[in-house]
Amino acid sequence: MTVPRVEHGPCRDITRPTHAPHGRASLCGRARWALRDFIERSRDAEVAVVYYASHGIEVDGVNYLVPIDAALERDTDIYDEALSLDRVLIAIEPATKLRLVVLDACRDSQDEH
């Protein structure tokens, strides 16, 4: 199978500063907006690929992607400072041929501490 080269695909490095709606400057805020944009752009896609490199954590059986600038001072901060892996999986669900999430993350379990 030959895959055509994508000249100007909707790839984005969310760690680079950009104008974020409503003044959201944190990586988590940019990640949420990038994911929303990804959902809109890939709605009719055959292939959806998400690559994530950073930290991850499991809290109460739910996996979260934790940006490097997250301020996790208490257990409940995870809901505001991180992005649920389930949310990412929902975002790629409409793809008709291939849905792929690559996680290059060290993961920590809250229960192990």
TrEMBL record:
It holds the Pfam family Peptidase_C14. Gene3D superfamilies: 3.40.50.1460. Residues 34-109 form the Peptidase C14 caspase domain. Transmembrane segments: none annotated. InterPro entries: Caspase-like_dom_sf (IPR029030), Caspase-related_regulators (IPR052039), Pept_C14_caspase (IPR011600). Coiled coil: none annotated. PANTHER family: MUCOSA ASSOCIATED LYMPHOID TISSUE LYMPHOMA TRANSLOCATION PROTEIN 1/PARACASPASE, MUCOSA-ASSOCIATED LYMPHOID TISSUE LYMPHOMA TRANSLOCATION PROTEIN 1. This is Caspase family protein.
